[in-house]
User: Which sequence fits this backbone?
């Protein structure tokens, strides 16, 4: 009696296993009536040193990546690689658009690089996003100073 019950259980398990294996094999077969793809595969994009541009699978809004970009950008600033720092800060502004801090650092990097107009634009964006910042008066003075320097350069030309 125990032997018959064991055989029934074994037969049931075997039939069930075969059913599952058969279902998974059928599920993997492509449909016979599917038309072949008519569009050519997309061309690979040119690699640009930007996390967002070179990796389209990256999410647009990624606060963790923005924080990491800030840390890496600060590191580059300390090392004196201003161009790399600018790239990291710009990536941080893309990863978390409403975040004001990357614009502050971006303004500082542009100012060190000698690019006054982008520095003013970045500082202004910082103040737009964070109007009650503790250093808002200091940033406004920087903007005013940079604008005066830009005007001086225009009159010299």
Assistant:
């Amino acid at each position: 009696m125990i032997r018959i019950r064991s055989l029934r259980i074994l037969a049931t398990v075997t039939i069930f296993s075969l059913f599952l294996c058969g279902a998974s094999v059928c599920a993997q077969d492509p449909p016979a009536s599917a038309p072949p793809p008519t569009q050519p595969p997309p061309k690979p994009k040119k690699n640009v040193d930007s996390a967002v541009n070179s990796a389209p699978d990256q999410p647009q809004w990624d606060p963790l990546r923005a924080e990491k970009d800030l840390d890496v950008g600060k590191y580059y600033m300390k090392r004196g690689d201003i161009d790399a720092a600018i790239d990291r800060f710009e990536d941080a502004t893309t990863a978390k658009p409403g975040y004001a801090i990357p614009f502050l650092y971006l303004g500082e990097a542009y100012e060190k690089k000698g690019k006054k107009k982008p520095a003013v634009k970045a500082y202004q964006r910082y103040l737009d996003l964070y109007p009650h910042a503790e250093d808002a008066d200091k940033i406004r003075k920087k903007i005013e100073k940079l604008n005066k320097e830009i005007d001086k350069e225009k009159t010299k030309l």
About this structure: The domain at 60-156 is CATH 1.25.40.10 (Serine Threonine Protein Phosphatase 5, Tetratricopeptide repeat). The radius of gyration is 30 Å. The longest helix spans residues 2-28.
